[in-house]
Each structure stands twice: as structure tokens, then as C-alpha cells.
Design a protein that fits this description.
homodimer, 116 residues, alpha+beta, Arc Repressor Mutant, subunit A, 3-stranded antiparallel beta sheet, 3 strands, globular, DNA-binding, transcription (chains A, B), HTH_HxlR (chains A, B)
DNA sequence: GTAAGTAGTTACCTTCAGGTAAGTAAATCT
DNA sequence: AGATTTACTTACCTGAAGGTAACTACTTAC
């Protein structure tokens, strides 16, 4: 190993933070994961739940999440073809992170967003 | 209250997630917070620690974090003027979130980033 | 007087995330 | 034959995020 970086150092933390942001960055990734945490969903269902995401962005972000092994895409040969998206184990492993994310989002809203 | 949204619903979670992302979004916010978690720092120290951030971006993001009450700026009337940045209680309240962020970032790196 | 260190600012440019609008394809309903 | 539903794709455009480089202002050291 060339220049191993210890787990406790600030440098190590900076790299781990960058890694996580690379996958979760952007306006739609977290919302999509939140939506799928609620249960497997179809394209249209996710779109309606998130509300104002265009099919282009949804399609694009779902592909990116699939490439990063966060979700899987399953095509069902039903009458109008349906596609179901679900979280992989890796996707589900964001649960604790998501929980803290939501807790902090709520805290922040109460502290700041509400007073402006 | 008009149409209260229950804490458990997917809609509530989507809003909290959006709130959190509003503050933490971008390439540099999380790294800056990580850097300051390590202790109060001066402009140049943060810049050297993060490594490749330009003074323009650092200045801009520090201002944004200050506006959101995540950090404070203190000017010291020393011989070359120094400025110290530190986390506010609200800023420090990201510690659990940050921890999960870093845990997951490491997990993700081991699962995916390492294998590509 | 000039270099070096403090903490930025300013102007300019490029890239890409994201938005908008319309089109595609296959099947089923009416 | 035309409308509807599902799940997208494609082309085009805009604005914001971020990068680069140079400049400012003050003080100390050489």
C-alpha cells in the first residue's frame, strides 16, 4: 500500500466524504432513494411521488443509480409493459445515513428555514 | 396548519431530505465541515487541508455556510491579520450525519469504487 | 525596495446539471 | 381508427456551479 491513510485522520474523512457525495450528489438521487425505501416502485409511481421531476431526469438518475449498484431495474412482461425499481442491499445500506439525513434536515428546518 | 404532513410519510421524508441537501449540496460544503470538525481553522489552513479548492470557491462557500449558521467567522487583529472559522452548535449538530456519511462512503468505496 | 505570508476579490470562461417540449413504441380499450 | 397507458428518448436551451488567473491590501522580514 502506498502511503496508507489512517481511518482517524482528517484526510481519510475527506476522501470518504467525497466518495459518498459522488453517488448521492444532485437534486434527485436522495429523493429517489427515499421513495424506494418506502417500497419497490414503478417509473410512473416514483415520478408522481417526487412530484416535479421530468421523465428525462428520472430516467437519467435511475440509470446512474443502477450503474452504482444502488438500485435494480426489473422489466415485467405485463399487458402494458411495467418496470419495477428496487433497492439493492447496497442501496438499503443507506438507511442509517438516510435516517440521520432526515433527522438533521428536520432539525435544520426548525432552526433556520422556519425563521426566514 | 394547512395539510399537516405526518412524520412517517414518504412526503415528509422527501421534504426533510430536500432541506438537508439545500445546505450540504455542492462539491465543497461537506469537505469544509469535515475540516472544521477537526478543530477551528484559518482560511489558509482549510485551503491547504482540502487541497485543490481555489480561494474564490472557499471564500464563497464559507460565506454561504455562515449565512446558514453552520459556521462563524472571527477576525483576529494580529500582526498579519488572521481569521478563524469554527462550527456553530448547528454546525456541530451534523456530527452524527457526518459519521454515517463517512461510514457509508467507506462502505461504498469498498464495495464499488475499489472494483472499477 | 522587494519578497513573502495573511485573506481574500474580481473578471472571465467553460462545463454540465437540469428544464422544456415533443416524439417514440407497443398494447389495450372503446 | 383514435385515445389511453406505460416507459421512456431526443433535441434544444439556459443558468448556475465551478475553474483559472490575476490583482488587492496590509505587515513583516531580508
Amino acid at each position: 500500500m502506498a502511503k496508507a491513510i489512517k481511518k482517524e485522520t482528517c484526510q481519510y474523512r475527506l476522501i470518504a466524504g467525497k466518495d459518498a457525495m459522488e453517488v448521492l450528489q444532485g437534486k434527485w438521487r436522495i429523493p429517489i432513494i427515499i421513495s424506494l425505501t418506502d417500497g419497490d416502485k414503478r417509473f410512473g409511481e416514483i415520478q408522481r411521488e417526487i412530484g416535479n421531476i421530468s421523465p428525462k431526469m428520472l430516467s437519467q438518475e435511475l440509470k446512474a443509480l443502477e450503474e452504482n449498484k444502488i438500485i435494480t431495474r426489473t422489466l415485467y412482461d405485463s399487458m402494458p409493459v411495467t418496470v419495477e425499481y428496487s433497492l439493492t442491499p447496497l442501496g438499503r445500506s443507506t438507511d442509517k445515513l438516510l435516517e440521520e439525513f432526515l433527522k438533521w434536515g428536520t432539525h435544520f428546518r426548525n432552526e433556520i428555514v422556519g425563521n426566514r
